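Dig into this one:

. . .
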Amino acid sequence: WGAMLGILEMLQAGITCFCDMYHFPAAGTRAAIDGGLRALPSGVLLQFTDHLNNVSTALEFVLELRKNAPSRIIPMLGPHAPYSCTPEMLHRVAEAAIEHHLGVHIHVAETRDEVQQVKQRTGMTPVEYLDSVGLLDNHVTAAHCIHVTDSEVELLADKQIGIVHCPSSNMKLASGFAPVPRMLQAGARVGLGTDGAASNNRLDVLQEARMAALIHKGYSADPGVVTSKQALHMATYGGAQALGLADSIGTLEVGKCADFAIISLAGAHTQPLHHLHSQLIYAAHAGDVVCTVVDGVVLYERGNFPHLDAERIMSRAREAAHRLVNS
């Protein structure tokens, strides 16, 4: 029910596709299927937990999904991070991903502590370490990539690794500022993420685009970096690139999936309309979304969810939350 609540929020915010990793991947996948969104769930791996440290189990989960789930569900392998997975787990993930043509979703260089842990254990930075075990030879969606060097940025760009920039989470958790202007200059594939409600509170990619366009100007003292056009690109086609799905989503083109959102710019806060990119990034918000469509199916329109009982979902989510807090 918590995942279904997230589905409602994402649809209201014009989000058509999401990439999800962490506990309870089966429940999150069920929510995506029931909710109608395009989703990339992961067979999650963490060395600290007994039920999430088996590569064979994670692989079985994703192969079963690939066989039986709708085509809009695209499973990935999800080793949590270089510091939270053993070298053996990472080697096996790299091999399994190549053998079965699977994407890999992983957190990379999110905190300074993580970088130090990996350096102490391996003598390498997280990006160098992942490259050494062969993981970067696959399609990789790498969340955060905050504490990376210039040479690592070049490596990520050369390997066409999908970088997921999560500006709100990075600030809320005081993780730091990702070198996004440098990444864009290097031609890296950069998309936007929320990092989930637990690290952000909101599942709103328009908000993330605005934050991305603002914070890099602030810390770099350069108002010309991360333009509104670049921020909109990261929220749409850049996100599709980061997920390895640019051939099928991210732009409206003949032959691609009909995944799109309609955003009204009729409100006082978005008028007068002089510059589309600027209005969308600096003025529009999730409340301006009037319609969300996935695979040509209208999933949200002007406050209504044609295929979902929103009141029941919110009620059940509240009940579950109270049980958790009071237990």
Summary: The longest helix spans residues 310-326. The mean pLDDT is 96. The chain has 15 helices and ten strands.
